[in-house]
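Cross-posting from the chemistry board since nobody answered there.

I work mostly on the small-molecule side, so proteins are not my area. We synthesized 2-acetamido-2-deoxy-beta-D-glucopyranose and want a rough idea of how it might sit in this target. Sequence and SMILES are below. Is it possible to get a predicted 3D structure of the two together?
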Amino acid sequence: MIAMSSVATAVIALAAWVYAGQPSSVQNPTALPSQAVFVDPHSFAVLGANATFRTNAFGQLFNPTNTTPPFFQVFHQDFLKILGPSPTLRAVTANPTFAFAHEAPIWDPATDEVFFASNDGGALGMSDIDHNSQVSKISLAEVATAIKAAGPGAAPVNVSVTKLDLPDTIQMTNGGTGPFDGQLVLITSGRGPRPPSIALVNPTPPHNTTVLLDNFFGRQFNSLNDIKVLPGTNKLFFTDVTYGFLNHFRPAPLMPNQVYRFDPDTSAVRVVADGFDKCNGIIFSPDGSVAYVTDTGATGGFLGSNQTEPATIYAFDVDRKTHAFTNRRVFAFVDTGIADGGQVDAAGNLYAGCGDGAQVWAPDGTLLGKFFLGTLSANLVFAGDGRVVIMAETAIYLAEIAAKAHKVSFP
Ligand SMILES: *[C@@H]1O[C@H](CO)[C@@H](O)[C@H](O)[C@H]1NC(C)=O
Ligand SMILES: *[C@@H]1O[C@H](CO)[C@@H](O)[C@H](O)[C@H]1NC(C)=O
Ligand SMILES: *[C@@H]1O[C@H](CO)[C@@H](O)[C@H](O)[C@H]1NC(C)=O
Ligand SMILES: *[C@@H]1O[C@H](CO)[C@@H](O)[C@H](O)[C@H]1NC(C)=O
């Protein structure tokens, strides 16, 4: 009896706490999609001296409704426009023993396949100084068939993962974009003495590869991480950071952690931004006027995590003439883990892989909501309008939502 009434009281208190102070469309739980939970920022602005506060942003997630993942955590009603009336979020493939789905997600519209790379460190990464990371793909057509067979709801499915047999020049893939002219753009961290590089890779066998860049005026990069094309141009912008060394598969770093621009027309390479702790993901606004660079300084490989270092997304203006990144400012500091790689949608909302799944911000920096997975995501990709494919190390999730994709082109 006591247990029953305290449960009922807790449920009422929780409901009041979650829905208080919001516009009626959001207050009314029936207006929320079935996998969405509204968490009003008013409801946790003051927790009180007796509350249990989080002390570890890398282990403790922020899930005040104790909802079972995966679900959509909504902080602002504009997230409901992104989700649309009947969004779903589910795992579409999983392998609990291997971090096969870390980064470099690329959707190939020609085949409706998504390519990605495994983790190049960590207990489940299976790659180290002696072992290369693995690039694989899944078929979204196979996902669609499996979802249809699973019936209504958002039950997980488990489609097959196909490993690519890539040339030896591709060592420790960590980022990717495209495809451009039908070729994947991969960026690699290198392994041991083998240099980090940017390469074009044929998505179909024999996966022939053209390396575009593997040094800076004769010096190797530290370990290249992420790459994007500046919208409206064919210039490649990429980050270099010390994680290869910090994960024990690259020599001691010889250059600052910084952001570079590569011009495929001339092969000229230059620095466009520095002053980072550990620059990691790179994303452009749809019109190319703003660059976002994540700084994952709080995660340090063998140095461990340090919550007083950045878990921050910086925004910059992109100088139209020089392409230098100017007017650096904080865009967001993430509440859980770090923001790693990400994408924008057609409206310029920013989606990034974080410590609890993927988080979404409006262009003004408002945290709108999360694709709450209960586990970390390092990156994600739009697979056309309405489909977001989220890397989650030992699993891949698919979110089917209303947002439209930002279409990248390579003139
Ligand atoms: C916090 O806990 C103390 C000790 O149990 C209690 O006296 C106090 O009323 C509590 N404060 C609040 C705000 O609940
Ligand atoms: C999915 O299938 C693969 C084999 O194709 C298997 O290794 C894995 O354990 C399965 N995942 C789940 C969650 O059952
Ligand atoms: C792979 O080879 C084909 C056929 O020669 C060519 O068209 C394509 O550009 C090559 N791709 C790369 C990335 O080298
Ligand atoms: C965490 O980082 C801060 C700032 O760089 C540094 O002062 C501190 O010593 C670091 N703490 C640990 C435990 O490494």
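Reply from a structural biologist on the board:
Welcome over. Reading the output above for you: Residues 1-25 have pLDDT under 50 and may be disordered. Residues 45 and 287 are 35 Å apart (CA to CA). Happy to explain the token format if needed.
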